[in-house]
Structure formats: structure tokens, C-alpha cells
């Protein structure tokens, strides 16, 4: 039942609140208003459901307090004790008063006020529970200590899965500045590449930047890697930082493919990452490398809240058990992708696995990863995605 705080109300009225079933009635004199502690208390977690401003409180003061409480304690209803007339009602409601109670109110009148306050509190509780959450923005960095372990495969497929699940949501950045092959993995012939996207007007105008992106048939946007290693190398970490910041203001998901190891560009992207997909290969050096990279990133405090450990190419090397791998890495693996012929076929034809929607375990594993990064996509539209994520 409701908790009630009365201020400057006469004893009979206070008693009626108890009779009407309030669980906890605290009665204070008008001097409580002068102390200034009242507002602080009412804005705290122990705020009563109802504040009753009695006949001893001047109406002007009641209205002023109601206005303040409206913002400071939205869970508390303010009731003013006064002889009601329609004009007073309107003025009171405008001031933020929720109910007006006659000084001669009966227990039934008080019970009705309590009931209305409870209904308002319930409506507010439901409304606040269904307030749509601000969409989460994510910067997903795909990295690994070594090359040739599946970074580009994972980055392109994850980005594609996100782009299809939420149209217009995703951009993929090829930060393997020397030997990036995202464009090739997606069979794109880009007009502009990374160096174009970080210089000139594109570097400070999102509209211009968008014209430098290459669009894949799935709807995925791409910042393609440089066509010359030298030009790619000239891109500075500061330029990368600005690019990632600008893209994450425009796109819900920024997926970043990287060069092997911890280059300055990768570290810069990681400073902005919400998620790290760290990939290791299924061999002893690959597993040790994974451990080492995790340790280094931990020391640098660059492991973001979303960490996804992926072992790729499982089943390819004899003698390594997953339990041993996890012991060496020092953490459970989040995803294990087996070796499968569908992968090189997809790389060579430039048709990502998630566009074909095959039933092979690598495609299914990559879809699971998309679901980890975009739970909403997995629960809703992603169901469509689970069968077939893309279509040309
Ligand atoms: N699970 C797998 N099974 C078979 N081949 C794979 C698998 N993962 C990746 N590959 C192949 O390995 C090669 C390197 O993959 P890639 O994604 O380019 O790695 P990285 O970006 O880390 O250098 C590609 O030819 C790709 O087709
Ligand atoms: Mg690569």
C-alpha cells in the first residue's frame, strides 16, 4: 500500500489516510518546508508515493513545491488540500498537483485519492519499462596475432550479417593498410580507398565521407583498403581515429578488419572498440599467440567489454584438444570454427558465406557471432538471417 507524507495537514485528515489503508503515514509540520531537506529526501530512493500539502501550507507554496517535485521525484504524486473549484483545479494541475482533496474529505474520498495515485504509479512503471532503449552503437575490431587465420573472412561475414539484419546500419573498414583484401573478399571494385576517406573534405564532413564509401549489393558500406602498400602506410593513427569516430556517429555498427599483430592502427581502433573479435589458429604457435595478445591488450587496458575469442580451422591439426587450448589461452573460447572447403571457395569467388546461407558449420558459427554482436537482429529479423542472411 501507499506511503504518505503529509505536511501541515490537520490530525483528522492524517488519521483518514491510515484508515483508508496507507501503510506508512508520516506527518510533518509546515516548518519542514523551510528546512530545505525535504526536496532532497523526496528526490531520494525513499520518496513516498504521495505528498499531501495540508491547509496550513499557502497555496502558492504548494504549487511551487508541486512544480519542483514534478521533475525531482516523478514517482511521487502531490495532493493539495483545498476547497475545490474548477479554476483552482486547472491552476493546480498546471502546477504539477495530481489531486485536490477537500479539508473535509471522508475516508472514502481519501481512499479514492490513494487509488488514483496507485494507478498513476503503475502506469508510470509500465511506461518506463517499455521506453525504447537507445540503439547501442558498436565498434567491432577483428584482430589476430598472425596472418592467414581468418580475420578478413570473419570481418566481412560479420559485417554483412549485421548489414542485412539492420539495413543501413553497418560499415566495414579495411585497416589492413598494406595488404587489405576486403574488397576482393566482397568482389568490389572500389572507386575510393582508405587514404581518400581520411584526407581532405571527407575527413571532417560526414556527407563527403559517405560518398567515399563503396556499397556492396547487400547494403553493407565499405572503406576499402589502399591499392598500394605505401599509400596505406602513410595513413596516420590520428587519421584512423577520426575516421572511426566519424563512422560510428553515422553507423550503428563499425566493423574493422586489421593487419596481423598489434599495429598502431589496430591499437587506435581498439581504443574506440566496444567489441574485440580475437582470432587464433588451431596450432601451438597460434594458440600461444592468442594468449600473448590477450595479455598485452590486458596490460594496455585495451580489451573492450565485448570480448569474443574465436578459434579458426579446428580439426586441421592433430593432437590439440579444445580443453588444452582453453587452458593455454586462459579463457573459454566463445566460438570454434572448423576447417571447411566452403571457406576458400567463398574467398576466391568473392561471395561471402553468409550470402549463400549454406548449412556448413562455418556459416552457422559466423551467424552465431552476428547474434552475439546484435542480439536484436538474432531474435527478430535475424531468424530470417539464420536461414539465409543475404541475397544478391
Ligand atoms: N575455417 C576455414 N576453413 C578453410 N579455410 C579457411 C578457413 N578460414 C579461413 N580460411 C582460408 O584461409 C585464408 C586466409 O583467410 P583470411 O580470412 O584472409 O585470413 P586473414 O585475414 O587473417 O589473413 C583464406 O583463403 C580463407 O579462405
Ligand atoms: Mg586479412
Features:
binds magnesium ion; Rossmann fold; alpha/beta; 2 domains; eight-stranded mixed sheet; disordered C terminus; 392 residues; binds adenosine-5'-diphosphate
Count of discrete structural domains:
2
**Beta-strand percentage range:** 15-25%
Helical residue percent band = 40-55%
Q: Walk across the major sheet and give the strand order.
A: 8-9-7-10-6-11-12-13
> What class would the helix/strand composition place it in?
alpha/beta
Q: Quick check: average pLDDT?
A: 88
Ligands, deduplicated: adenosine-5'-diphosphate, magnesium ion
Find the CATH superfamily of the largest domain.
P-loop containing nucleotide triphosphate hydrolases
Computed Rg: 31 Å
Please report the number of helical segments: 20
Q: At CATH's second level, what is the architecture of the largest domain?
A: 3-Layer(aba) Sandwich
* Overall number of strands: 13
The outline comes out as: elongated
- How can the largest sheet be summarized? 8 strands, mixed
Stretches where pLDDT is under 50 for at least 5 consecutive residues are 379-392
* CATH fold naming of the largest domain: Rossmann fold
CATH top level assignment of the largest domain: Alpha Beta
In angstroms, what separates the terminal alpha carbons? 60 Å
Amino acid at each position: 500500500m501507499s506511503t504518505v507524507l503529509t505536511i501541515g495537514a490537520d490530525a483528522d485528515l492524517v488519521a483518514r489516510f491510515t484508515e483508508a489503508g496507507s501503510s506508512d503515514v508520516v506527518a510533518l509540520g509546515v516548518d519542514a518546508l523551510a528546512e530545505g531537506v525535504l526536496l532532497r529526501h523526496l528526490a531520494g530512493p525513499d520518496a513516498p508515493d504521495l505528498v499531501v500539502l495540508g491547509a496550513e501550507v499557502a497555496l502558492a507554496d504548494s504549487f511551487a513545491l508541486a512544480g519542483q517535485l514534478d521533475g525531482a521525484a516523478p514517482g511521487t504524486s502531490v495532493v493539495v488540500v483545498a476547497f475545490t473549484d474548477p479554476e483552482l483545479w486547472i491552476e493546480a494541475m498546471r502546477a504539477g498537483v495530481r489531486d485536490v482533496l477537500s479539508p473535509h474529505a471522508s475516508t472514502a474520498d481519501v481512499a479514492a485519492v490513494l487509488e488514483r495515485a496507485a494507478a498513476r504509479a503503475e502506469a508510470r512503471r509500465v511506461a518506463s519499462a517499455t521506453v525504447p532503449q537507445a540503439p547501442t552503437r558498436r565498434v567491432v575490431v577483428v584482430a589476430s596475432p598472425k596472418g592467414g587465420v581468418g580475420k578478413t573472412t570473419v570481418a566481412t561475414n560479420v559485417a554483412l550479417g549485421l548489414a542485412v539484419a539492420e539495413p543501413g546500419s553497418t560499415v566495414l573498414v579495411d585497416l589492413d593498410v598494406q595488404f587489405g583484401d576486403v574488397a576482393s573478399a566482397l568482389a568490389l571494385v572500389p572507386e575510393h580507398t582508405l587514404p581518400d576517406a581520411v584526407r581532405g573534405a571527407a575527413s571532417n564532413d560526414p556527407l563527403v565521407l559517405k560518398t567515399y564509401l563503396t556499397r556492396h549489393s547487400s547494403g553493407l558500406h565499405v572503406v576499402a583498403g589502399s591499392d598500394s602498400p605505401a599509400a596505406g602506410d602513410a595513413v596516420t593513427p590520428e587519421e584512423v581515429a577520426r575516421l572511426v569516430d566519424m563512422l560510428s556517429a553515422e553507423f550503428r555498427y563499425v566493423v574493422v578488419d586489421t593487419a596481423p599483430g598489434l599495429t598502431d592502427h589496430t591499437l587506435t581502433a581498439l581504443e574506440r572498440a566496444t567489441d574485440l573479435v580475437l582470432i587464433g589458429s588451431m596450432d601451438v604457435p597460434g594458440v600461444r599467440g592468442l594468449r600473448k595478445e590477450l595479455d598485452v591488450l590486458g596490460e594496455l587496458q585495451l580489451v573492450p567489454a565485448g570480448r569474443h575469442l574465436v578459434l579458426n580451422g579446428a580439426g586441421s591439426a592433430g593432437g590439440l584438444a579444445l580443453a588444452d587450448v582453453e587452458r593455454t589461452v586462459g579463457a573459454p573460447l566463445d566460438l570454434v570454427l572448423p576447417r571447411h572447403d566452403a571457406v576458400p571457395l567463398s574467398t576466391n569467388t568473392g561471395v561471402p558465406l553468409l550470402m549463400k546461407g549454406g548449412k556448413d558449420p562455418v556459416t552457422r558459427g559466423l551467424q552465431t557471432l552476428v547474434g552475439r554482436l546484435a542480439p536484436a537482429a538474432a531474435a527478430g529479423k535475424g531468424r530470417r538471417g539464420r536461414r539465409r542472411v543475404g541475397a544478391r
